Every structure is written in structure tokens, then in C-alpha cells.
Amino acid sequence: MEIFLSAILGELASRSINLFISKISKPKVLDVEGSLQRALLRAQVIIDEATGRHITNQAMLQQVDMLRDAIHHGCYILDSFTYQSHEEEAKDQVLSHSFSLSKVNFLKGICSSDRKTMLLEHLEGAHDNLSSMILDMKEFVVLLMSYPHMYRHPYSMHLLLGNCMFSRQMETELVINFLLDAQPHGSKELEVLPIVGPAKVGKSTLVAHICKNERVQDHFSKILLLHDHDFRDNDLAILKEGCAMKHQNCISNLNKDKGWLVVVDLDSDLNEDAWNLLYSSCKQLMPSTSKIIIANRSAKIIEFGTTRALNLKYLSLEASWYFFKTIAFGSMDPKMHPRFAHVAMEIAKLLGSRRFNGVNVVACLLRDNFEIRFWCNIRDFLRRLVQKYVSKFGVHPSDLMNHNKLVHLGRMANPFEDLLFYREYQRYSHEEVPKIRVQDVVYGSVKALGKLEFLSWVSPIPPYYSYVVICEVRELKRRVAKRKRSTENGTTIC
User: Fold this and answer.
1) Residue 51 has pLDDT above 90, yes or no
2) How far lies 27's CA from each of 21, 24, 80, in Å?
3) Dihedral sign of CA atoms 282, 288, 289, 291 in order
4) How far is CA 409 from CA 235, 378, 386, 469, in A?
5) Using one digit for the tens of pLDDT, what is the confidence trace for 293-319?
6) CB of 398 within 8 A of CB of 355?
7) pLDDT band for position 479 (50/70/90)?
8) Which PANTHER family match (predicted)?
9) 162 or 43: whose pLDDT is higher?
10) Is the bond into 463 cis (omega within 30 degrees of 0)?
11) Are 250 and 242 in contact (CB under 8 A)?
12) CA dihedral sign, ordered 298, 299, 303, 305
């Protein structure tokens, strides 16, 4: 009788807790969620308008960049709340079949209370930050209308993000303003802008977009692009031969009185002797109005600059998720597919934001295979891969791949084969590329064996590189090796 009475009292207590929590927290959370959604819409209108205009004011560009970061953060918090809540509701249904009702309700009440309190704090913080930024941008919106339009947006956001440079508007305008800014009268020294950033951060993409800009092309008579192979010969004859020698990398117009723009985009380090030779050659052969951009991962090039260096950083996880979600779902609304969205968010976290090509590849792969089992398999495969490298080496596999270090990727569809990544390099758009895609080998069932080249990604934006990876497919022994034990100094070694 006492056990029965205790069970009834426990049931009543848990239900009272759940009722109290739901009455207090649920309306509050939903209110903040709705307010955040409305704030995100208002902020997105400002960003869309700003993205389509030629903004030259540095302070306004910083405001745009800060508002964009706030939007990415707000979307990330909102999606975390929405899709995590959906996943926990599904888990609660599973738990209810395994435990008694009183235990489930009691545990659910305690856990949901803590979770909702934390989510409410994050939602309120994101909403307050975004709302205050919108209020502070009243003058910004008025001034924005005075800047000319740049282009019309495509109808679908995934087409826009998939075919333009993502989240680099401020950096682009900073470089363009440097290039169009007139030099002091009588100056004989050429102005040099260093662009520094880690591997795969997007330095080549940034300078390629700048070279394609109409304002930049109209300002310079020649735009010359130099890469690593142009520094193999010490005489740098490319500067004397000009466009005749590097026609495919040179953009010219008829005005010969204008200065040249020389873009030095290097993967390897540039030593001081090579730089001095290049700089002296440029001074001898080019008008004094010419300018130089040098892009490299090494911070040593900062000392070559005549102005403050531009430091490129990897995208934040929130910005990477915004991009990943938009590409993966295409024209579909993620809110209509909460289970897919929850899995996609887990995949985005596992991929990180340090290897943008990989994020793009997986997002397109998910979009082309809209099946929940396939998405879950990719999530589980990536989770095992990331956990293995983080636990053993304390590093994400993407960091190793960015520096062309050996990575055992494995194959999702065939556990008896291993895929070894050796290195990645890019080819120009006119060069031939392998027929087999590496994602079809990693995540699919394409047959391949031995050391081969695979196509990783064909970029739809300048400089239109095709990324090729060198990998090796190895067969693994199916026989399980026996554990060998030996004793050394009283210690058992496995």
C-alpha cells in the first residue's frame, strides 16, 4: 500500500512540475523566438540592400559586417533551439517505451527546465543584440540609399550563395578602395597591400573577384597575375614580356597611360631576395601609379607592404552553418523538414568551417541525395572520423588536409577499404580533370583501387579552379588481429 501511494504521489509531483514549467517557460520562450525571427527578417532586409550597393565608406562596411555576423549568430541560436527541441521530443517518445511514466516525466521535467532556461538566455541575448544593432542603423539606412546599385539578386538564395563569394563584402571593398585611392603627388614608391591568411581561407578567390571588378579593370591598363611557377626563373621575364607571355592571366584595356596592377598570389613562401627583385623590376617597367597586391599564408610578407595588411580569417561556425543549410536544402524550407535540419546541423558542426570546399561538397551531396538514412550515415561516418583524429592527435582532419598531410579518410560504404588522402592541388579551368569524384569514393560505392587522382570540386566562381586530390584506396585485412600481450617491467602492454 505504501509503495502504491508513493508512486501516485510521485506521479502527481512530476505532473505538477511539468505543468508549472510549461506555463511559465513555454510562452516566454515562444515569445522570444517569435521576436528573434522578426528581428532577423528586418536585419536581412538591410543586409540584402547593402549587399547590392557599392559602399565605399569604411565605417558603413564595418556596420554591414557586424550586422551580418549578428544574423548568422541569431540564425544559429534559433535553429539550435528549433531542431534540438524536435530531436528531444522524438527521444522522449523512445524513452517512454523503456521506462515507467513517472520516471520519464520526472526526468523530462528537470532536464527540460535546465535546457529551456539556457536556451531562453541565448535567445534573449541574440534578440537584444540584433534589435539594438537595427535601432542604431537608422542613419546607415538613410545613407545607404545614396550608394549606386551593384547587381540584382537571383530569386533563390541558394543560387546566390552558390555562385558568388560568401561573406567577404567588407574585405573586397577595402582592397578596391586601396586600389582606386590616388597616390600622393610626386611619390616614386609603388604602393603594396599584403593579404595574409591561413591555407584554404579564400585569398585566391578574393583577389580573383577583385581583378574581375569593373571599377578595377577601368582603373588599370594591365592586371598581371603571378603565381609560384613564375618565380622559378630569377630574371622574372614575365614582367618584360607582359601580356604576350601570360595572355590567359592578363586583362588589358586600351589606355596605356594608366598604371598596372600586379597580383602576386603564392602558396609557397616568398623570400626577401625574390621580393626585392620583383619590386625593383616593377619600379623600372611600370608607371608610378601602379600598385601591387601580395597574397600569402606567411605573415612575413607584412613587412613588404606600404599599408596595413589585410588579415583573412576562417568563417565562424555560425556563418558556415548559414551557408551549409542554404546550399543543402536548396529551394526547400528547412522548417518543413526538422529531422533533416537537425542532422544537417550536426554534420555542419562536424565539418567545421576551416575547409570551405569540403563544406560545399558535402552540402551539394546532401541536396542531391535527400534521404534521411543517407544523411544519418554521413553524420555517423564523419563523427567517427573526427573523434578518431581529435582523440588520437588532438587535431581536426580538415586542418591536416589543408596542409596536405596524410589522412586516413576511410570509405562509408565499404568498411573493408581505406581511402588515404595525400594532397590537394588546383587546376585551371581550361585543364582536364579526373572523371571520378572523390565524394563518390568516400561516401558512395564507386570501385577504385590504388593511388589515383580524383576530382574534389569545380568552383563556379573566380578564379574557377578545379580542385584535384591525390588519394590511395587500399584493401584492409578482414581477419581480426589477435591481441598480443607482453609484460615489460611488470606492465602489461596491449
Assistant:
1) no
2) 10, 7, 18
3) positive
4) 43, 12, 10, 13
5) 999 999 999 999 999 999 999 999 999
6) yes
7) low
8) NB-ARC DOMAIN-CONTAINING PROTEIN (PTHR33377:SF23), OS10G0134700 PROTEIN-RELATED (PTHR33377)
9) 43
10) yes
11) yes
12) positive
Question: What's the CA gap between 218 and 206, in Å, rounded?
Answer: 18
Helix (H, G, I), strand (E, B) or coil at 24: helix
Q: What is the mean pLDDT of the chain?
A: 81
Q: How many CB atoms lie within 10 A of CB 487?
A: 8
Q: Which residue type does 84 have?
A: Q
Which residue from 251, 231, 200, 248 is spatially nearest to 428, judged by alpha carbons? 248
* pLDDT on residue 435: 94
Average pLDDT over residues 449-476: 94
147, exposed or middle or buried, with CB in 10 Å at 0-12, 13-18, 19+?
middle
Mean pLDDT score, 182-189: 74
Residue 166: other Cβ atoms inside 10 A = 20
Supply the Cα-derived Rg of the chain in whole angstroms: 28
Which has the higher per-residue pLDDT, 450 or 230? 450
Residue 22's SS3 state is: helix
Instruction: Please check the confidence at residue 1 and state whether its pLDDT lies above 90.
Output: no
Alpha-carbon distance of 434 to 23, in angstroms, equals 60
- Other Cβ atoms less than 10 A from the Cβ of 74: the count is 25
For the record, the C-alpha cell of 492 comes out as 602489461
**Which pLDDT belongs to residue 25?**
46
Residue 467 phi/psi, 5° resolution?
-100, 125
- In DSSP terms, 493 is beta-bridged to 486
